[in-house]
Every structure is written in C-alpha cells, then in structure tokens.
Amino acid sequence: MTIKNIITVLTIFLSGFCYAGTSTKVDFNFDWKFSKPAGFVPQDTLFLSPDIKWEDVCLPHDWSISEGYTKTQTAGSNGFLPGGVGIYMKNFLTSDDMNGKKVFIHFEGVYNNSKVWINGHLLGFRPNGYVGFEYELTQYLKPKGSMNTITVCVDRRAYADSRWYVGAGIYRNVSLILRNELYIPSDGIFVTTPQVGNRSMVNVVCEVKNAGTGVKGVTVKHEVVYDGKTIASVSDDFVALKGDFNEFTASVELENCHLWSLETPSMYELHTTLIASDGYVMDKKTTKFGIRNIKFDADEGFLLNGKSVKIKGVNIHHDLGCMGVAAYDDALLRRLLKLRSIGCNAIRTAHNPHSESLLEMCDSLGLLVMNEFIDEWKVAKKKWITERAKEDAPDSISIGYTRYFDTHAEHDLKSFIRRDRNHPCVILWSIGNEIEWTYPYYWASSKDNKGFKGLIHTGDPETDNKSILKEFNRLSGGKDDLAETAAVLAGWVKDVDTTRPVSSGVVVPSVSRLSGYTDVLDVVGYNYKDKYYEIDHKLYPYQPIIGSENVGQLFEWTAVADKKYIAGIFVWTGFDYLGENGPWPARGGDCSFFDFVGNKTARGHFFECLWKDTPKTHIVTIPEKESEFKMDADGSFTYTPRPGWIRRWEWYDTRDKWKYRRDEDILVQVYTNAPEVELFLNGKSLGTKKRSDFMEHNILMWKVAYKEGTLLAVGKDGDRILSKDTLSTSGKPCRLALNCDRKTATDNGYDLIHVEVSIEDKEGNTVVDIPSDVRIILDDKLELAGLDNGSPSIEDLNINVINNSVRTYNGKCLFVLRTIRGKKGTSFVKVVGDGGIQGRCKILISHPISH
C-alpha cells in the first residue's frame, strides 16, 4: 500500500464551457543531477565549475546514508555518517501548460541550509531542514520552449548539528505548481468541527490570493464528500482584493456523521472551487478532514469523542534505517503498521516535523500524533564526536538552527502548524523537547538533576518548592529567557490553531512548574519523570499531564495504567534509530520495539502483551551466568541490574534461540498476557507458573538445564489454552527463506519491496548462530535501495556495495528494492549466501492505471 498525494490536471465543465484552468501539481522528483564538489563553499552568487562531475539521482535523496559509515569527519551523535556540501541541478522546459500561469516550486524538506536558484537567480535561503517551503519562478522563466535550470545547494558542513541522524539533501518530495492569478495558496484551507456528534458543524476558512491587476469577484464553493458522495455544499460570492491573501469563511451542518476514531478512522473530503465572475473555474482543491472531538482533562486524562482513551504511544525519529531519511512512503507505512500491530495507538514526532505522508497515514490508520516542532530554541545542546558526554563537538560543526531561531522560528513554526492543522490524528502541538538542558539555572536548581549522569531521571520528587524557587532566582538572576520564549512560541501556535492544546517535553518539572514555563502549556509533557505524576497532580490539579518520553520498561506503564488522570505515555522508541550513540562502531540506539530492519525485539513482544488483549505468549532465553536474574535456593529469582545510567533505557539480555552447551543452566523467560503458563521441553512439562507471582517484572521464569530439542510455552486460563510459542534447536543452514512484503508493484519509481531474508535449517528453524554474507542478484526491473541486518554495530553489517551483500545478524537481513520508471514485467530476485545456500522470489511489476 502506498499513500501519495499526486494531483492530476483536472478538466472542469461549467455551464457547458470547458476550461482546463485549475491549479496543477506536477511531480518534480525525477531526472536530477547531484554532485559534492570538493572544497565548494556556498555563496549567494552561483558559480559551478564546468569540471564538476554529476551523477543521476531521483528524489527523495539522502546522500549521507548513500556514502556509508566512516570515522572521518563524522560524529557518534549523527551515526558516523558524513555531511558536507551537496548540489542538485535539474533542467526543464518552459511548456505550453505554463503559459499565463503562476509557476511555483515546492520543497517538502531539504536538510539543510538550502539555497535555491532558477536560471542563476537566487530565490532564497532556508536554514530549517524539516519545514516545507516554496518559491515563485514565473518572472525568471525563459520563453516557451526554452530550457530552465533549477539549482539547489545544501550546506551540511556542520555534520554534528543534531543529537541524532538527520541525513543530508533533498530528502522529501519536490513539486512544480501551476496556478492562475486567482488561487488558493498552499495550506490555505482550514477545516474545524466545533460541534461534533451525530449532527456536526463544519467551519471552513479559505484563503484566496489575487495576483491579478485589480479587484476580482469570486464565488467560493465548498462541497463535503463522504465515501465518494456529496452530502452537503455551501457557496458564497466575495470580492478578492488585489495582492492580498483574502480570507473567506463558511459553515455547513452535517447529519448522521461518521466520527474519526482509533477503531474507525472515518475521513471526509472538502472540495473547494474558486469560480471567477466570468464563470471560469480558477482553482480547485481537495482537503481531507475528520470529525472528532478531543479533550485533555486534569482528572480524566485524554478523551476522544467523549470516551476515555489511554495513550499507548511511541517516539520515532524520521530516519528509515538503511533508507536514511529519504522519505519513501512504503518504508514509513511498513513501520506504522508494525507499531499498530503491537497495540501502539499514538506517535510522537521526535523532535521535528516529519513528512506530510506520516500524518496522512496516521489519519487513515487511526493513530494519534503528538506533533513536535523542535529540539533546541535559542541555545544549542551538546553534541559529541565519539560518544555521549565525551569529546563534545566544537561549535563550528555542532551549532545548527539555533543561530537562526530569532529570525526564522516564527515563520517556520506557523508554516508547520498550517501544514498539519487539518489532520484529525494530531491531538497535541509540542513546542520543544527537554529545553531545560540548555539553561543551566534550570537543572542546577533541582537536587535530582545534578548533571547528565548520576541521579538524573531517577531522583525522588522534590517538594521543597520554596528552596527550589530561591535557588532558581539566585542562579537566573531574575531573568528567565526559557519561560519567555515558551510563551512566545505558544502564542504563535495559537495564532494559527486554537483547536488543539500546546505541550512540550519537560524534563525538570520541579523547576519548570515554578518558573512559569509550564504556565503557558495546556498539557504538560513529562520526560522520564514518572515519580512526579502523583505529587504534581495534587500540587497542580488544574493541568493535564502526559508522559511525553518514557523508557520502555514495565514501571513506566504501571505508573499510568491505573491512573485516570495521566493521559498515557510515549515510549522511547518505536524503532531503532541512527545516531545519538557511540563510540564506534555503535551507529544507533538499541532501545526499541523494532530494530533497524523491522524485526520485533524482546521489548516489543513484552509490550504487545501489555498493550493488546489478543492472547500472546513469547519465549526468550539467556544463560544464567549472563543474566541479571539469578535463581535463589527457594526457586524465586533475584534481579541485580547492571551498573550505569544508560541501563534504564536498555532491555534485559535475551536471545531468540534454543541452542547452548549441554546441561548449561539457561533462564527461560516467557512474556504473556495469559494468567499462567506451562512450559514443556521435548514434550515433558517443566511446571506451570502464574503471572501474578512475577508481577515485579511481569516475566515468568524457569531455570532449565539445556537439552537439544524444542521448548513449548502454553499460555492458559485454567484448562483453557489461550496461546502458544515454541523455540527449537536449529541445525545446519539449508536455505535462505524470503519474505516479501508485496508480490506486485508498479513501475512508478517509488514502490518499494522489502525482502526479509532468514537462514533456515531443513526443519524451517531460523539459524541465528551461524552468520552468512548474503548477496542479492537483480534484473533490470528493480534496483537496490538499501540493505541492513538490524544490528546496532557498524562492524556487524559487513556491507559490500560492489556485490550488493550484507552479513546476517541473528540469522536475518533485509534488502529494500525499488521499482524503476517504465520497467514493467516479472522481476526475478535471487539471494545467495555462504556455502551456496539460496532463495528466490518474483515480483510482478505493472504500469500504474491512469485516472
């Protein structure tokens, strides 16, 4: 399944007159040239040497992931992937379609510090790498039939400007937009539903730009469409003043409404038509929206359409593993479907605006979104070269958007809100994340926050507000730029949208509650502060609370599961992400529900048991000598966690295998939502244990002397069997098993096929302990877009770009294939591993049907 927003040329019939005059959005992603000329320094005046060597690329494109991991001029904070300066160039004709039109180019995302030229004329500079932008090209186009050149320079020399991997290049879609002189600007329609129920009220604000020579009369017509049928319409006549963005409002009442919910995410369409006084259709735009009511209540938590919903959320960064940040819809959709499959119902876009497609998908899938703007305001956070809190990166390569905050933040924040405000999935606007770390007088005023390590995130709640405030005022000198900036940002959000609450990820609530920072928030997000929920609910009973960032451990969920007043949590993280790690060869975190390639982790299985009612049982194992759990003489288990501040983010050491030394003491751990589990080894019962006896960790455990064969765990409720899981000893590698997420695709140049490869023995068991270098062989209908094995270690990958091979990790690897424009037919895919083991599949590629 691929979600795209491609608007084709429409021919409108009005009163018997045919006029092909509406706005047209043209895909501009193909036929680009790319280069990284050595020593190139971006200037406002464009000069490119004729000796520059270009390569053909299509968009979205992330040159950083394409160049591969290296220790040279990279940083652990950014996943040991390079930056630099890149140049994109594309030639295009001034076509007949452009005659009499206003021509714009729209970029959904360029990371970062981009400059754009048309035929050598500088159109502008945009430092933000996440917020879309557009420029008008009309006056700089050459005459009809002539060739024009778009050039984009991306300046990513500050390769450690983020705490996580951000990529480099034009990594989201680019479009040309052709408009009449009277048109609806991008994001110029805002739909709200102030009255929600069986009978609902829909309000519309429509902006109209008059780029003509005088005042224009215009009819604005709105039609509400559900399931392909027009169910209501409203129109009115207005006067559009020259040069202004005219704002026109309308309302329509709907009956028998289908409300947007997690279970039934019903979507409506608003078809808006601009009709000039002479009868011509000047513009037409479709806006999708949902009818739903959201409320955050200080006592009741989060309510959707009046019903209490506990938010079971995850944080995700915007990288897509081996695809880097290149925003391919199929890769993103695959991830969202996996998250939803384990009971996740919400996403926090850590810590920047994600792609437009993400919001469209969440609308369709019934996923809630905490939509976040930024990680830094006016002061940059520390980044590092080798590993966290060691060898801080110098300012020259680590300071990014903060240097432009004062000049660009208002425009960028409001553009972000405008882009996403019609999506029913968006329930919160987050203006920041852990901003307190950039203001020492915040974290130094609280006893449980004395630096990055030590007691950070784990201290008991401080209740001596008088002492905290006294220390805060002493350290800040009575001047608090953080709280002042927060108030400004919250105000900018409300300038654009008052229908959703403003939030932020607060990390020092004991201080932020007193400074005035949280006073400007409608909902206070707590990062890793579960111990403050209860006491702050009593101290500040008027303000809703949500866990905006939480470690993926049982205690974080139990802290909110039975507390109605906590809206829910967002676990860190849904998927492993690149960066925020080190030292080499660590390329990213290992703290998620799914690894880099989409394999469900032990933590993912565990939380699925917590978050879903569907019966589930899952087995993992670990030698007792390597485990943090030890069995006592009475048969109980004692837990001694590893030392180190990072342990809170890590999962227990486990393995998905049953293959050890004979009679070695193995701890068999079972995750389940069944009341009890009976464990068998080779058909012999090892006893039944109740989940209620293991509530501290919610993990049932047995100590078993290893014997080759099969473990079977049976989840039961009395005599009733609810679920089963098995784990068998694997033999020698026999074949490569291929699991493709699709067997058909279109030759549009966008469709992806994820080929999951597993080493299997003759019985079909995954062989996790014998790695193999796996090579993929393709014909001319598919190309390799990425390859990975899920390991957090760069050295485990052993990628060979010449042979298109990668080494398996825990018996598995992934190849991501992309279709090629115009190449249809049956494509045969073959993979070959060590010792000649093989696997094959075929993909039927067809030409997309035109509409």
TrEMBL record:
UniProt keyword list: Glycosidase, Hydrolase, Signal
Domain Glycoside hydrolase family as annotated: residue spans: 736-835
PROSITE patterns: GLYCOSYL_HYDROL_F2_2
Occurrences of domain Glycosyl hydrolases family 2 sugar binding (ranges): 84-177
Residue span(s) of domain Glycoside hydrolase family 2 immunoglobulin-like beta-sandwich: 189-292
GO biological process terms, semicolon-separated: carbohydrate metabolic process
Keyword Signal appears in the UniProt entry: yes
Presence of keyword Cytoplasm: no
Segment forming the signal sequence: 1-20
Domain Glycoside hydrolase family 2 catalytic: 299-435
UniProt-recorded Gene Ontology molecular function terms: hydrolase activity, hydrolyzing O-glycosyl compounds
DUF4982 domain: residues covered: 665-719
Family: Belongs to the glycosyl hydrolase 2 family.
Xref: PANTHER family: BETA-GALACTOSIDASE, BETA-MANNOSIDASE
Protein name (database record): Glycoside hydrolase family 2 protein
Originating species: Bacteroides uniformis
